[in-house]
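Appendix B, example 12.
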Amino acid sequence: MTQNLHVKFCGLRSTQDIAAAAAAGARYVGFVFFEKSPRHVTIAQAAELAIEVPMGLCKVALTVNAEDAFLDALTAAVPIDMLQLHGKETPERVAEVKARYGLPVMKAVGVADADDLPQIDAYMAVADQILIDAKPPKGAALPGGNGLSFDWRLIADRTWDKPWMLAGGLTPDNVAQAARMTGARQVDVSSGVESAPGVKDAGLIAAFGNAAKV
């Protein structure tokens, strides 16, 4: 049995969201900088929210194919602890970002079938952590946060030498099963603790935190 999963609550947009995540035992809190997402926050909003994050919680900035100019402004204004690259960034771009900003970098990799698994190894060579997510459907506006899961059996017997995090369609009802099937020690949730797109539910956040103590 997995014990005390490290939980990342992503797409937080208010001080109430942060308080609920902290109370639920979050290890990471994520802010989304992607205008098409209902969870989007501006750099100014994130700067104010980051002040409210309790000491010891890792503040993660989720960006999608961001250019240096945006990342320069983001890192100058917001005291983040980790950059999450959730677009089509190449391994070379991951290495560039890590070198330029001196911050740990988490790269999201979308998985739909076994053909997607080699990407994980490629990014493991350059990123500090990997977020293994469900690949978005063709034509989807969002690269993540779609509430979809992938076949967890695809990674059931895999091990890697760097930390990784499971994402995609996780809810209070299935997170324990997902951890058992994949061996995940870290999980990421966004839409699975919302009452509407972009609207976090404190009750669901608490339930997810409890379910992650398996």
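The first helix runs from residue 15 to 23. The two ends are 7 Å apart (CA to CA).
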